[in-house]
Amino acid sequence: MSVKSYRDAINECLHQEMERDQTVIVLGEDVVGGSGTEGGKEAIGGVFSLTAGLWGKFGDNRVIDTPISESAIVGAAAGAALAGLRPVAEIMFTDFLGLCLDQIYNQAAKFKYMFGGKAKTPMVVRMTTGAGMSAAAQHSQTNYAWVTNIPGVKSIVPSTPYDAKGLLASAIRGEDPVVFFENKLLYMLKGEVPDEPYTIPLGKGVLTRQGKDATIVAFSRMVHLANTVADKLAAEGITCDVIDPRTTSPLDEEMILESVSQTGRLIVVDESNPRCSLASDIAGLVASKAFEYLDAPIKLVTPPHTPVPFAPNLEQAYLPNPDKIEKAVRQALEGI
Amino acid sequence: MQLNRDQLEKAYRLMKTIREFEERLHIEIAKGEIPGFTHLYSGQEACAVGVCENLTDKDYVVSTHRGHGHCIAKGVDVPGMMKEIYGKSGGICGGKGGSMHIADLGKGMLGANGIVGGGPPIAVGAAIAARNKGDGGVAVAFGGDGSCNQGTVFEAMNLAVVLKVPAIFVFENNGYSEHTGVAYAVGSGDVAARAAAFGMPAIKADGSDFFSVYEATREAVERARSGGGPTTLELAICRFYGHVEGDPQRYRGKGEVQRLRENLDCLKHFRARVTEAGLLSNAQLDKLDTEVLDLIENSVQGARSAPPPAVETALADVYNAY
User: Fold this and answer.
1) Which of A161, A334, B36, B49 is the most exposed, fewest CB within 10 Å of its CB?
2) Are B48 and B5 spatial neighbours (Cβ–Cβ below 8 Å)?
3) B230 closest CA partner among B153, B290, B286
4) What are the beta bridge partners of residue A247?
């Protein structure tokens, strides 16, 4: 066990899984970097350095620089998976999902079902997500709800270095296509991470704070904001369960329903736009399956239904923050 | 011609099987027996068989919405395909895929595909897998002239060239992108020239001539197997039926289909060629015709009498159906 950043935890996982299983390959734009330049290969190792060191160790056949062709990247991953490899594709920003979505939702997601259960499609598509860097409307989005809507695909939204490494290993070793959303503001977050490989089961949430007055469900970076609020309220004697589902699909419904049945109050914090979001999905889940336990209206803390703005003050106004979450919890406690 | 008599018989049998499979579907679909959208391959048989006779089970094929011919040529079970198209249990995909999604991974058939241009990126991935396995396998992406206008296809062709993987892009140019003519929809009208611009050999061949397709593919497969990278084949061919069954084909010229059937029937060409060369006799070919018709009849009867899939299978084959 040692302290590692979220980025280093993911990089370490890729190294270890590629060592463990020679069918694991990595492909994407600049995952090696420098191909075809005077400076030469391994110039970059991924724009956020997530794939650093892989090419030197595993070579051209397993660490593949691609042209800027998102559809070909994900489609090639799907085809390689059908043909026996375990590809890990990198899409630089989740905002480019629109360029490759067909290969995810019409192809990889459906092979197993359409082909009568005969196909396995073990592939992972890693992509960065989230606002907060003034990267503006086309490099900041949070659209894991789109992927969650697709049957057959798993969706992972890790919030800590420990979870990132263990969940990615599970994704790589599984038999289904997975989209793995890395929040780019978390890359430098540090935490305790075992040095050896390990897996975390998909579909199992984690209770990051325990309490009796309200349940806060939060995803990815929002988990840390929810924890901050829970700690502040605890000083006043108000205690909250904070649930990090860790995967949006499959979703740990049981943990959420169990908690709400104890606390009677639900606040969902989601960085997605609000319509057809994880927030609305979980509100619907609780309203339909745990209505009798609710003592207050369900509170949703999300951005407005706008693109992500550029100017730092506008972007901060857009994002959920601890103040907004605290206000929502207090309203829930007041039953309004 | 390097093919022996057994190979010629097999090629004819496969082409005839595809033809009779499709002709029979045309009849049964009109009776309302078959659910869904079906796109028939009649007229294009020499393309599928001419290509696939160069392949083995270790080689991959990615097909299209008009995929029955590619499936049969790649060795997929014909009665199982018929059941699938009828939406019955025992279908090659359990009745969950249908005409546009027939796949048989064991045969290297990675799926027909309902998305025009969806297949070529997948074929490049299969070609990466083949390269990494080092077993000399290749991956073929079938497509039509319609797919040559999709960006995904350009992405796939470029990626195959960049990675120099054993991929072969086969464009069956049948003159129609659904209900729109190539003369309108394909700028330049030259599919092979587009592929060549990505930096790979691009060969044009007569898609109604089995031998022309076979030879062009042989060269492409040899190059791919020996590490020489991708090739594109543009096969000039015609479609005897509409885009989809039920298409009234008002875009056709007067008497066009009749002319095509008279002049560009790959089965007639094949028969004439092998009998004139003394390689196979008309009697041998007639016997194959009878066997094929029996197979199709049995397949239809088997599909008709098969029960529908058990309802609970609708929730299987996703990790969680909620």
Assistant:
1) A334
2) no
3) B153
4) A156
Give the CB-side neighbour count of residue A100, counting CA atoms within 13 A: 33
Rounded CA Rg of chain B: 19
Question: What CATH number did the domain enclosing B265 receive?
Answer: 3.40.50.970
Q: What is the pLDDT of residues B189-225, one digit of tens each?
A: 999 999 999 999 999 999 999 999 999 999 999 999 9
CB contact under 8 A, B121 and A79: yes
Q: Which has the closest alpha carbon to B256: B271, B242, B268, B235?
A: B242
Name the DSSP letter for residue A106. I
Is A78 in Cβ contact with B94 (below 8 Å)?
no
B284-309 tens-digit pLDDT: 999 999 999 999 999 999 999 999 99
The chain A residue lying nearest B129, using CA atoms, is A80
Domain that holds residue B138: 5-176+185-304
pLDDT digits (tens, 9 = 90+) for B262-286: 999 999 999 999 999 999 999 999 9
pLDDT tens sequence across A179-200:
999 999 999 999 999 999 999 9
Residues of A with catalytic roles? 139
Residue of B nearest to A104 (CA): B118
Nearest to B126 by CA among B102, B110, B113: B110
Helix and strand tally (H, E) in chain B? 12, 7
Residue A329: both structure tokens together: 């919890």
Q: Do you find a cis peptide bond into A250, omega within 30 degrees of 0?
A: yes
Task: Collect all residues of chain A within an 8 Å Cβ-Cβ radius of residue B128.
Answer: 25, 27, 64, 76, 79-80, 85
Count of the separate structural domains present in chain B = 1
> Alpha-carbon distance B78 to B83, whole Å?
9
CATH number among 3.40.50.920, 2.30.40.10, 3.90.78.10, 3.40.1160.10, domain A206-334: 3.40.50.920
Query: Looking at the domain assignment, is residue B95 inside a domain?
Result: yes
Locate CATH 3.40.50.920 in chain A. Answer: 206-334
- Domain A2-193 CATH class label: alpha beta
Ranges of CATH 3.40.50.970 domains, chain A: 2-193
Selected residue with higher pLDDT from A203 and A1 = A203
Residue B11 CA to residue B72 CA, distance in Å, equals 11
Percent of chain B exceeding pLDDT 70 equals 100
The answer to whether the CB atoms of B118 and A116 lie below 8 A apart is no
Rg value, chain A, Cα: 20
Assign B276 to helix, strand or coil: helix
Please, what is the end-to-end C-alpha distance for chain B in angstroms? Answer: 57
Statement: residue A10 has pLDDT above 90: yes
Does any domain span residue B317?
A: no
Q: With respect to residue B129, please indicate whether it lies within any of the assigned structural domains.
A: yes
Side by side, the strands of the sheet bearing A240-244 are A206-209, A240-244, A214-218, A266-269, A299-301
Using the predicted structure, report yes or no on whether residue B1 has a pLDDT greater than 60: no
pTM score of the predicted model: 0.96
